[in-house]
Each structure stands twice: as C-alpha cells, then as structure tokens.
Amino acid sequence: MTQVAQYLIKNYYTRYTKVKAPAMKTLVKLCFERKDRMVIIQDDRIKGVAIYLTLTDETYRMLKDIDIANADAQMAFDLFRERGKNIHFIMLAADCLRTILKGVREVVKREHPRTVSWFNPDHTKLHTRRF
After folding, report:
1. Concatenated DSSP letters for the chain?
2. The whole model's pTM is what?
3. What would the pLDDT profile of 16-48 be if each residue is shown by its tens digit?
4. What does the alpha-carbon distance between residue 61 and residue 129 come to, in Å, rounded to a whole number?
C-alpha cells in the first residue's frame, strides 16, 4: 500500500489538486482501511489508482452541495461508511483514458451500481453515468 500512496501523492495531488498532500502515513492508513473502495490497475508498475464512495440515494442527490475536496474528517468518515448503489470517485490518477475505463469497468463489475459519477479536476462539473 505504500507504493499506492506514493503513486497518489505523485500523480493525484501534484497534478490535479491545489491542496497539500496528506502525510504519507495518513495516506497509507487510508489505503489499508479502504482497500475495498479502491481499484488499482497495474502490470509491472502501477498504471492507475482510484478511490470511490458507495453513496445512498439521499446523499447522492446532495452531492453537488457537498465540497468533498474540502470535507472535514468526520464527514469523510461518514461518507466512507455509506453502502449505497451510487459510486462516486473521489480520487483518480491514471496514465491514460484506457486505464481509467478499465478501472471503471472493474468497479462496475464488482459493485453493480445504479450510477457512477466524478467531478472534473477543478470540481466545477459533476459527470454522471447511469447503468
């Protein structure tokens, strides 16, 4: 999980967000605790990593009003505890679109969601796909 945390720091936080990356120890802990909500695409090296939430319909409807990028720790913990049929990707870093699509297919196959969503990197637009 240390390699996954390093990959996220290098490819997610430095490329897509303007917030400071959490401490390596914190990110490794998140990766260990939430490995059921993570998809990792790799061959000889890590090609992509995504962390997602499984939201209830009620929370999913309020998603545009919640600033997940700046959510406090308790809210983030509560969102991770939810077990709904709506997938929302909160962290995503990949080397190409093919890797992203492979990861999405893997999550759809594993979770059988009603919807899949994600924000664009600057959190101005919510993208949604129904299944």
Report:
1. -HHHHHHHIIIIIHHH-SSPPPPHHHHHHHHHHTGGGEEEEESSSEEEEEEEEEE-HHHHHTGGGS-GGG--HHHHHHHHH---SEEEEEEEEESSHHHHHHHHHHHHHHH--SEEEEE-TTSS-EEEEE-
2. 0.86
3. 776 777 788 888 888 888 889 999 999 999 999
4. 14
Amino acid at 96: C
The one-letter code for the residue type at 57 is: D
d(CA 100, CA 54): 18
* C-alpha span between 56 and 60 (Å, rounded): 6
User: How large is the greatest C-alpha to C-alpha distance in the chain, in angstroms?
Assistant: 40
Sign of CA dihedral 118, 9, 4, 70: negative
What distance in Å separates the CA atoms of residue 56 and residue 53, rounded to the nearest whole number?
Answer: 10
Cα–chain-centroid distance for residue 20?
A: 17
Rounded CA gap, 52 and 91, in Å? Answer: 7
- CB 38 within 8 Å of CB 100: no
